[in-house]
Amino acid sequence: MGENNKAMYGKMILDVVIGPLLESLEKKDKSSAQTLRASFSKVDTTVPGFVHDFLRGILKKADIQDHFDICETLLRLGDAQGYDASKTTPSGAAMHPSSKELRLLRPEPSFQELNRCATNLKTILSRIPIQIDDRKQFLETIKEIAGSIKHLLDAFNKVIAEIPGGDNGSKQILEDRKKEFVRYSKKFSNMLKAFFRDGSQRQSVFLSANYLIFQTNVILRTVKQETERE
């Protein structure tokens, strides 16, 4: 596994595994949860991929590392933003609609539309492991993904348009995130073409979809950082 993939997995594990657990802990001990969150984030930034290795170490200790596909599991959990037994996504993952880490809090319609588009795209991508072996169903899912990518970009453009130009460079930062997202969208499209040519790229499709979910989360985090400053 490449170091870049490990770093991406580490960030996604923080988003969909550790983050939701810490949000639950916050209800009982907010200070401890915040300390743990900051510690995990800091060490994974200092040593990219640490969280991935941490999880692999736990799986190895439990002697189940050979029965656990991190790439596929993270994709199935890619739309999970917390846990709520009363709400589930089409992939079966529980989702909490008010997760703070990956949810924009500004009330303007454009920001809330970006929230909805991001969640919708991640939900559809998380269905890939379930549907990839059914060609007809998978082709329909690909059409949904293409439409969801377009809707997300449209929503993101509206948010960018509402950011006033200034010396802080927020508008350019968001434009750069958009270009990066488009780049990974094209990579995902190319990977799908390779998959339909020979059918042997299943794991690569999962990996590419994970990167697209990761880039969607990067957009949400960047918008939060640039527009929700205290």
TrEMBL record:
It is found in: Cell membrane; Cytoplasm. GO terms for biological process: regulation of Golgi organization. Keywords: Cell membrane, Cytoplasm, Membrane. It is a peripheral membrane protein. GO terms for cellular component: cytoplasm; FAR/SIN/STRIPAK complex; plasma membrane. GO terms for molecular function: protein kinase binding. Residues 8-64 form the Programmed cell death protein 10 dimerisation domain. It holds the Pfam family PDCD10_N. Its main location: membrane. Belongs to the PDCD10 family. This is PDCD10.
